Task: inverse folding
């Protein structure tokens, strides 16, 4: 028995040792905590090989909700943060976790709903009015409920419409507590309206009879930002490689690559680095 | 130490064993080093072994007999140190039995428990447990019990008789100073039984002390140098085999020897 | 039903064309889960064997605990390991989070109770059979454990298989500590979760079918092995 334990110890030690060596060897690889929409829409898949070709930097992406991405970055489990919840991002920088926040690109949120359109919101351009109609008609609405960027946005829209959807929670308001894709799957499964970013929606493959019901309101604007994690808080941050990545993203070349990504002939992200917000 | 006149009822001398017919304990040199003193074992409030004092003739085959439930197998396990007595002691040369001493003993059970390995590997396993690694020794043991042709067969595919021969070989491989056999031939056909008996006899002749439990009176007559009769957790008599079969002293022993009782015994065996 | 047929043919296509991405994912799945299985057996088997052959105060309570731990939720294990391996955690300096090693650690923790509890059961049954013989031979506990593990090896392979099955099928732990990073920590189950979240249910299902094929293959292999063993009276 002691033998086996010894053997196990050696095994683990070798395993750990190898991993440490690995981690040190890959100085040009960085870890990005990212929102899911950029990953699920295939943007990284399209963009990263071009980045690698030009800068030699290998990017590892962990795609989680914005809320969790920020928390993970605060635990120093990231070199770069790429999310879409500007107030939270600014707080992240202000609290010293991030070096500087850069606007990167934008798209917009839309509310998708079933063909039958039980709340009668199809074609509306005023999101406050649409949400009010959904709540008043008691039509099912599926929310992320996961503190993600999309969820934060959705909550702010309800607040602007002066509705507390939590009162309908468990009834018409379904808080799924999961990612964008899972929430879409769930919402579509039960005929509920869902608020989603346009990129995820366009690249989503299980649309059933769902269509975009509400779009075009300025309040639905969705800004993505990118932040280098502060090496003063997290000494292991790969500053050089992280900066190279961010600089490439906001460079003319990087912005062009982002703008050229299309799914079904539709542009998913609109680069706006260095520009004033809309 | 209190000398109890335990074996008083012995009939006259004439046994093959040197000590047969001796009714009280004599000096240590004339007895086998293993002995029990005031040995008792109780379970669920029932006294199964009742204050037994016992020692054996130094050589030869001692056979324990008695009805089912008399406590023979239990006594064997107590003597072998497999279970702890409720009171009393088992001694070796007057000292408490140590693990080292227990390693010089061996036991064969009614149902052989063989490892899921080859015949050879079963022997090698026990040799290795004693720190013996001579590869030829296992071969010699297998030859001794007539299993050389089956050395590389999985032990569990052997016939019942072959399995028991292997179990006996495994016990003898330990070169024990005392070998316990607990109804080792009870479930074997006559030929297999005789084969086992032959090995046991050879072991005796090469100096192994043997203590065995059997219900087979014919076997006891063929093998026993000494008979120990147990009834209700007590030893009611101990003496030479000839004396026992010719003229058992106790009523129980007489009854046990009786053919009718033999049938009763067999029935009991089937029910067990 | 049509979806399923589609998934099936898609799965076959992936397999037949030896899609390199798929091979990478399958390879990592096997690497992670087999490593975790080996580690869980190295720990769980001796512990299970020790509990099977010895008697000590609190043994029954320990057995209840081991059995209960078989139901550890993968997400909880993932979170626990994340908190340890996070840069902010006590083992953060190792830099293991979001590596296959982290996934192996999480899965090992998840399935070691399975290896321990099931081997305890298997070996205790075997020990019941061997106990008197072992007692007569005056074997040390260590020698008994070695003999039981060796003699129970064919039953223990089934135990290892159960542990492997649990680890290769779980997603909750590996997605938290691995991060589902493309070409680095993406395994079958996290890939399935990803494709599901992209709404590509056909692809997700076809990956699930491939996972099933792999499990079937491994089980068939082991069954053949055991069958041979039982023919020799070893099982």
Result:
């Amino acid at each position: 028995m002691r033998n086996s334990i010894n053997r196990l110890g050696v095994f683990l030690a070798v395993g750990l040792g190898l991993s440490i060596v690995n981690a040190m060897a890959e100085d040009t690889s960085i870890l990005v905590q990212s929102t899911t929409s950029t990953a699920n829409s295939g943007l990284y898949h399209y963009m990263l090989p071009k980045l690698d070709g030009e800068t030699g930097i290998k990017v590892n992406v962990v795609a989680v909700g914005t809320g969790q991405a920020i928390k993970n970055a605060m635990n120093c489990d990231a070199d770069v943060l790429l999310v879409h919840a500007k107030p939270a991002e600014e707080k992240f920088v202000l609290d010293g976790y991030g070096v500087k926040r850069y606007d990167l690109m934008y798209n917009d949120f839309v509310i998708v709903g079933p063909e039958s359109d039980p709340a009668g919101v199809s074609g509306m351009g005023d999101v406050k009015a649409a949400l009010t109609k959904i709540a008043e008609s008691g039509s099912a609405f599926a929310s992320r409920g996961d503190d993600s960027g999309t969820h934060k946005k959705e909550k702010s829209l309800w607040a602007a419409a002066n509705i507390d959807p939590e009162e309908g929670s468990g009834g018409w308001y379904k808080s799924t507590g999961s990612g964008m894709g899972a929430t879409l799957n769930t919402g579509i499964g039960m005929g509920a309206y869902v608020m989603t970013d346009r990129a995820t929606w366009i690249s989503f493959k299980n649309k059933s009879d769902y269509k975009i019901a509400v779009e075009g309101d300025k309040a639905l604007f969705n800004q993505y930002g990118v932040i280098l994690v502060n090496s003063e808080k997290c000494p292991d941050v790969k500053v050089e490689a992280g900066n190279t990545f961010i600089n490439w993203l906001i460079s003319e070349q990087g912005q062009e690559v982002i703008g050229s990504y299309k799914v079904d002939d539709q542009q998913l992200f609109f680069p706006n680095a260095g520009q004033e917000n809309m | 130490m209190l000398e109890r006149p335990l074996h008083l009822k012995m009939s006259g001398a004439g046994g093959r064993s040197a000590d047969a017919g001796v009714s009280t304990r004599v000096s240590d040199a004339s007895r086998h080093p293993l002995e029990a003193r005031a040995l008792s074992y109780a379970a669920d409030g029932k006294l199964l072994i009742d204050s037994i004092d016992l020692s054996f003739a130094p050589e030869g085959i001692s056979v324990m007999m008695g009805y089912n439930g008399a406590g023979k197998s239990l006594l064997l396990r107590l003597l072998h140190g497999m279970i702890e007595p409720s009171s009393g002691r088992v001694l070796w040369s007057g000292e408490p039995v140590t693990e080292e001493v227990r390693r010089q003993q061996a036991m064969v059970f009614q149902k052989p428990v063989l490892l899921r390995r080859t015949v050879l590997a079963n022997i090698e396993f026990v040799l290795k447990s004693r720190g013996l690694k001579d590869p030829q020794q296992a071969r010699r043991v297998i030859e001794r019990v007539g299993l050389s042709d089956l050395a590389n067969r999985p032990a569990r595919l052997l016939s019942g008789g072959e399995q028991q021969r292997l179990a006996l070989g495994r016990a003898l491989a330990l070169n024990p100073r005392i070998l316990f056999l607990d109804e080792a031939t009870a479930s074997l056909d006559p030929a297999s039984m005789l084969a086992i008996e032959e090995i046991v006899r050879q072991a005796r002749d090469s100096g192994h002390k043997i203590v065995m439990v059997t219900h087979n009176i014919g076997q006891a007559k063929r093998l026993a140098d000494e008979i120990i009769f147990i009834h209700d957790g007590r030893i009611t008599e101990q003496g030479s085999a000839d004396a026992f079969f010719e003229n058992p002293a106790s009523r129980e022993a007489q009854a046990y020897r009786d053919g009718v009782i033999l049938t009763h015994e067999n029935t009991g065996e089937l029910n067990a | 039903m049509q979806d399923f047929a589609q998934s099936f043919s898609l799965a076959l296509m992936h397999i037949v064309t030896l899609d390199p991405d798929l091979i990478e994912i399958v390879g990592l799945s096997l690497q992670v889960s087999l490593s975790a299985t080996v580690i869980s057996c190295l720990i769980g088997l001796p512990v299970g064997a020790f509990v099977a052959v010895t008697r000590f105060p609190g043994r029954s309570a320990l057995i209840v605990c081991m059995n209960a731990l078989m139901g550890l939720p993968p997400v909880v294990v993932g979170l626990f390991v994340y908190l340890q391996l996070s840069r902010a955690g006590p083992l953060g300096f190792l830099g293991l989070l979001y590596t296959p090693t982290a996934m192996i650690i999480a899965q090992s923790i998840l399935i070691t109770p399975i290896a321990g509890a099931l081997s305890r059961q298997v070996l205790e049954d075997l020990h019941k059979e061997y106990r008197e013989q072992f007692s007569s031979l005056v074997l040390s506990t260590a020698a008994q454990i070695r003999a039981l593990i060796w003699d129970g090896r064919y039953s223990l392979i089934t135990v290892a298989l159960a542990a492997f099955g649990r680890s290769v099928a779980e997603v909750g732990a590996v997605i938290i500590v691995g991060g589902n990073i493309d070409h680095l920590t993406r395994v079958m189950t996290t890939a399935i979760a990803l494709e599901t979240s992209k709404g590509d249910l056909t692809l997700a299902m076809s990956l699930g079918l491939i996972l099933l094929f792999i499990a079937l293959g491994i089980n068939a292999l082991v069954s053949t092995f055991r069958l041979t063993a039982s023919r020799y009276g070893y099982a």
